[in-house]
Amino acid sequence: EVQLVESGGGLVQAGGSLRLSCAASGFTFDDYAIGWFRQAPGKEREGVSCIVGSDGSTRYADSVKGRTTISSDNVKNTVYLQMNSLKPEDTAVYYCATFPFSGQGTQVTVSS
Fold it and tell me: Of all residues in the chain, what percent carry a pLDDT higher than 70?
């Protein structure tokens, strides 16, 4: 059974940082791409970043590029999303996903 469990969200002031974690189980990390997407109230779901297990290549949305780093620990089966210079518009529920599965999400709130 595939499980994805996010953690690390919280309330932070603009300009601050957070590191989100996604603990994955039930599949072989190396064989899949894992990513983060976010959804804010009243807004469409937005892909944030992803990492390909086989070669470690990464992708970022323009909205977070330069402020965000995705990484993985294939021994711990955990994916991390380091977010710096956070902005109020980064406020959303952040979900970890590997198609077609996603976790329950973790709330990130950035105050101005």
Answer: 100
Tokens 């690390």 sit on residue: 8
Count the neighbouring beta carbons within 10 Å of the beta carbon of residue 15: 11
Closest by Cα among 57, 55, 48 to 90: 48
**CB neighbours of 86 closer than 8 A, spacing ≥ 6?**
12, 14, 15, 16, 17, 18, 67, 108, 110
Distances (CA, A) of 112 to 15, 35, 40, 50, 90: 9, 27, 16, 27, 11
What phi and psi, each to the nearest 5 degrees, are found at residue 86?
-65, 145
State residue 4 phi and psi, 5-degree precision: -130, 120
Distance of alpha carbon 38 from alpha carbon 87, whole angstroms: 14
Residue ranges in 6-90 assigned as alpha helix (H): none
Amino acid at 79: V
Write the pLDDT tens digit of every residue in 66-96: 999 999 998 899 999 999 999 999 999 999 9
